[in-house]
Write a structure and sequence with these properties.
globular, 36% helix, Zincin-like, 12% strand, 137 residues, 3 strands
Amino acid sequence: MRGPQALPNPLTGAPVPLRHRPRKAEYFTECVRASVARISKTCPQALIGFDIGVEDVPTMEGPWSRDRVPLAAAMAPVPDRSGQVVLFRRPLEHRANTRKGLRILVHRTIVEQLSALTGIAVSEIDPTGLAEDDDWD
């Protein structure tokens, strides 16, 4: 930005802070954090023994093709290791049309993966659900 907004404040002499839109990776990480925070309030037992992580793209060998790329991977916990839910950022971003849609898709993906691993119903992990018109942080 250029112009008067970028000049220092004439009263304080301090520069005017400019707001910036978070980059894609930063926004995605914030979506994951917000989703985990929401789940920890509604159903904290679903997160016990699980680590939630993010990778850019799937690197595993598997039964997927160009037409069907996985959005997430999940591994059940074993006695000496926590369970893992890994979200793949680029496929999820590609699937969502808007930032709000991405936030919803990330949340639904985490909820579904945790439900599959724990056996807890989706409606118990996220009792209110998450509609497209919801505005949550």
